[in-house]
Amino acid sequence: MVYDLAYYERTLCLNSATAKDICEIRWQFVHEAKAKTVLDYGSGVGWFRAFRPFGVVVDTYDIGVAPQTGINKENYDLITLWDVLEHIMETGVIKLYLEKAKWAAVTVPILPPGKYLHEWKHYKPGEHVRYYTEETLFGFFGSCGFKLVKSEQVECPPREDIVSALFKRNKWKN
Questions:
Q1: Reduced to 3 states, what is the DSSP secondary structure of residue 145?
Q2: Beta-sheet strand order (sheet of 162-169)
Q3: CB contact set of 120 (below 8 Å; sequence gap of 6+)
Q4: Calpha distance 150→129 (Å, rounded)
Q5: Are 34 and 56 in contact (CB under 8 A)?
Q6: Which candidate, 6, 30, 160, places its Cα nearest to that of 102?
Q7: Which of 6, 56, 69, 101 is most deeply packed, by most CB within 10 A?
Q8: DSSP readout, 46-75?
Q9: What residue ranges of the chain have pLDDT lower than 70?
Q10: Residue 83: which of 4, 15, 169 has the closest Cα?
């Protein structure tokens, strides 16, 4: 998959109608983090920042060509990984950014029990390089020093087999 200008234009055209609704769902989902500073890692075209609550600073970072703010703070209240982890082969870089955050939120396709990977809607070789179960997802964040606060399928429908999870760091530097 090439994340170039054409990719982002297609993303805007195909998804703009539901982007605001999904962002509202996501902001409600992370509400208990009471975040004032957020790093939206893998921000795509920047919808999560565009639809942010008043007074919240959202820095955006993505490997693509869409405009972004960059990573401007030493630490963040919250780092978001909306539809990101399944695209990253080497998660070491994510662990470095997770160290900067008190809270972490993620959406990721979760392979349902009893479903075969090769027959699954989210099986996308070349685009999705990792596939998660709830156990492997929660284990990854546990290995980064986070505990699960909640896990739900808040975006389903309209999406299918997408789990949203909110994690809080076990110990945070003050």
A1: coil
A2: 57-61, 37-41, 76-82, 101-109, 162-169, 146-152
A3: 109, 111, 112, 161
A4: 25
A5: no
A6: 30
A7: 101
A8: -HHHHTPPTT-EEEEE-SSSS-------S-
A9: 1, 3, 5, 7-10, 12-17, 173-174
A10: 15
pLDDT in tens, 9-37: 667 666 666 788 888 999 999 999 999 99
CATH homologous superfamily of domain 5-169?
Vaccinia Virus protein VP39 (3.40.50.150)
Spatial CA neighbour of 103 closest among 32, 42, 7: 32
- Contact partners, residue 48, CB within 8 Å, separation at least 6: 23, 26, 38, 40, 58, 60, 80, 82
Alpha-carbon distance of 174 to 8, in angstroms, equals 38
Is the entire prediction scored with pTM above 0.90?
no
Residue pair 148/154 in contact by the 8 Å Cβ criterion: no
Write the single-letter amino acid at 81.
L
